[in-house]
Amino acid sequence: MLIKNYLHQGPRLRIARLNVHYAKETPLLPFAVDDYLLNGLNKEALPYDLILHTWTTDPTLILGMQDTRLPYLDQALAAVEEKTPYQAVVRPAGGLAVISEPGVVNYTLHLGPHSYSDKLSIDQAYQIKVQLLQDLLAPYQLQLTTGEVSDSYCPGKFDVSLAGKKIAGIAQRRIGGAIGIFTYLSLYGQQDYRGQVVKNFYQLGKQNQATKTKYPIINPDSMANLKASLPRLQSTNQVTEALEGVISQDLGTSFEEIDLAALDQSILNDQVQRMIKRNRRLTKGR
After folding, report:
1. Which of 186, 225, 200, 218 is nearest to 100 (CA)?
2. What is the rounded CA–CA span in Å between residue 286 and residue 283?
3. How many Å apart are CA 160 and CA 90, to the nearest integer?
4. Number of Cβ atoms within 10 Å of the Cβ of 61
5. For 158-202, what is each residue's pLDDT tens digit?
6. Catalytic residues
7. pLDDT tens, 47-89?
8. Which residues have CB under 8 Å from 162's CB, separation 6+?
9. Is the pTM of this model over 0.85?
10. Which residues belong to any copy of the BPL/LPL catalytic domain (predicted)?
11. Are the beta carbons of 101 and 134 closer than 8 angstroms?
12. Which residues pair with 111 in a beta bridge?
């Protein structure tokens, strides 16, 4: 398995997990937590080598920074607010718009700067997450494929597809020597509706105007849920426990628990304020 090959083979690594559902009242908190963990690992202020942050949210349209450059962003955001259950936020990691809600589980794998043997390239870090998902599904004889699904939302080189349809996307963020690898996995729910929401968002936000950024022309049928191919994994808890089992078995150690309330609230609040500042461009001029 790739993750073991890339991590130190010396003393046993300390690994931890943090599992949280973030309510609509705190839409920026998961991103603040991710940056808190990345900064903490980079500064060696946290006593772990690897942290798995598993999170779900209430219905949210998560935008990339490039989405904020849409020429008619205000109109697109107004339509999202008025016609859908989603609220919009901007994340710090790269990429374009994605949907998050209880049927979509997000996994951020944080690697501390001393956890990996050699400098990980961007592609190598992405491949770690792909391999983890493949190992997750191996007992069910399901084979994932990777490659850009150009008519999906947030298309990228390491889109993850099953039975010809995209089920997951991967992004990455680095702070110093710490690496955060972000994955959203569409588990259950109305994936065709999610695709239509993002399609409408881009149609209203771009309105056929020429832009430097290439925004996707979305086909909602290009994406699907994991549950469609694997009904046996029906809940976020089942999938999360299986993924944690893959990591724990491979590294030969158990996860320690991190509680959200145990984080340094002053530092976490500073990260929240950074996210608030980043998101001001969504309300500018509205």
Report:
1. 186
2. 5
3. 23
4. 26
5. 999 999 999 999 999 999 999 999 999 999 999 999 999 999 999
6. 154
7. 999 999 999 999 999 999 999 999 999 999 999 999 999 999 9
8. 137, 142, 143, 144, 145, 224, 226, 229
9. yes
10. 46-255
11. no
12. 50, 179
